[in-house]
Design a protein that fits this description.
This protein is 21% helix and 38% strand. With 146 residues, it is α/β, with parallel strands linked by helices. It has a single domain (20-145), classed as Cytidine Deaminase, domain 2, CATH 3.40.140. The chain has a seven-stranded mixed barrel. Strand 5 and strand 6 (129-134) form a beta hairpin. The longest helix has 13 residues, at 75-87.
Length: 146
Amino acid sequence: MDAKAGTDWKREESNALKIVLERNVYEFLSKLKPESIEEERCGLLIGVKKGDFFVDEAVEVRNVKSSVSEFELDPVESLRVFEYAERIGKEVVGVWHTHPLWKAYPSQKDVSGMKTFPGVWIIISRSEIRAFVFEEGVKELKIEVR
């Protein structure tokens, strides 16, 4: 991850989309805010996409990179989450990860990942939680908690 995470894209909110998080999901993600320099944590978001993103579950997946500055979802654990979502009639609608060193804006690696794995990307820094999508560029989503 580069030191200027979030500075290489134009901040623009998506007019079309928002992400609706169940309160338990928001509380779980809030507890993941890094308190020190620690390995990035990551996982998948389960819910539905009906215009907006609706998330009712966040699952932590092992970061195989074991790095403070980048993440890679464990492929075996990720497959299990996709299978679980399908079994309960939901889908994996996105990814979440922490930024222990940087603000909650996508790095260049995050933007590349967003192009490869479309959906919502939640980034959790020490002080905030933000959500993004890649639709003709990186756009920030409004987060609504219910």
